[in-house]
Q: What sequence folds into this?
């Protein structure tokens, strides 16, 4: 599963309204709340117009499909987005918006967001000839740096692994 959702009333509001939110979810009068939510976003942070537009799109999209924000409706919304082949990046953005809605309504929402796979590009990896030319050039300027580059290039060690070496281990 892509997410884990926990909705519960915030501890700092012990009113009946908060208790009701934790049990039944958040009921929204769409038109009125959309305007107030927009003002909340504008006052909370200096969001860019594109971010505001994206959050409001998600607000409308979510509440067109569902009447309340609850564990089940958020799970269903994410499943619907997956079924529509939305990218993990889009789903993460929609989850962020739902988190803002819950913050606005003073309800805690914990979500495990989908991981975004990073694609590795080999366009910036030097070929063997370029690597040897780099080592040769670096040796004439800085032998210590040339040694480090050669060690990393020939062993495939990570920089973090290289930093763990001590002078005594290299001798």
A:
């Amino acid at each position: 599963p892509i997410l884990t959702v926990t909705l519960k009333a915030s501890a700092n509001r012990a009113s009946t309204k908060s208790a009701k939110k934790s049990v039944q979810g958040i009921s929204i009068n769409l038109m009125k709340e959309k305007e107030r939510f927009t003002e909340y976003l504008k006052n909370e942070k200096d969001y860019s117009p594109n971010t505001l537009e994206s959050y409001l799109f998600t607000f409308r999209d979510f509440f067109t499909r569902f009447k309340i924000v609850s564990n089940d409706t958020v799970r269903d919304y994410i499943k619907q987005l997956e079924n529509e082949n939305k990218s993990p990046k889009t789903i993460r953005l929609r989850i962020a918006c739902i988190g803002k809605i819950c913050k606005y309504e003073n309800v805690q929402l914990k979500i495990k967001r989908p991981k975004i796979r990073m694609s590795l590009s080999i366009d910036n990896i030097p070929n063997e000839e370029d690597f040897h030319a780099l080592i040769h050039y670096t040796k004439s300027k800085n032998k210590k740096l040339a040694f480090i580059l050669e060690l990393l290039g020939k062993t495939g060690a990570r920089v973090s692994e290289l930093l763990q070496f001590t002078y005594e281990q290299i001798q």
